[in-house]
Amino acid sequence: MDVYETLYQFCLEYEVLLDDKKVPLWKLKKEDLDSVDLDLPWNSIRDLAIYLYELKKKQQNSKELVKCDIVEILVGIALLKAEEDYMRHVHEDTCLRYLSELITARINCIAKYYYMMKKPHNTDIFDEIILKFPQKKDLRASNINDLRLLIDRIRGYFE
Question: Least C-beta-crowded within 10 Å: which of 28, 39, 140, 141?
Fold first, then answer.
């Protein structure tokens, strides 16, 4: 199974609040999206873009892997609303660019402070899937398109 397929499955298992009950995304219908509480720490995709920018900066300056939830971030990019509809695409592109740069910063952190053949102890699903240990290639050029396809696929699940 492709790593992005695995990540897609994790995204569909993300639990949201529907009528005060936690249910995975895969149980929702398109009409449920308007009344569902995504249970995300951000109110809009613009807030998520700001969060990703700050997280990227923090990771670039850290010797440790900064904890974050890739599934939560991807669900947010796919399903959070924009404050102005015409800005949705701009904020989405910004989020994907910052997420890609965050992944690159994590790769640099691992390359700088850990042996590439040995998996660091504090990795999570973010590192397992995106970095594909042991990491031997630069993902900067290719991961943004893969992430965009993943976002479109999550959104497409509800059409």
Answer: 141
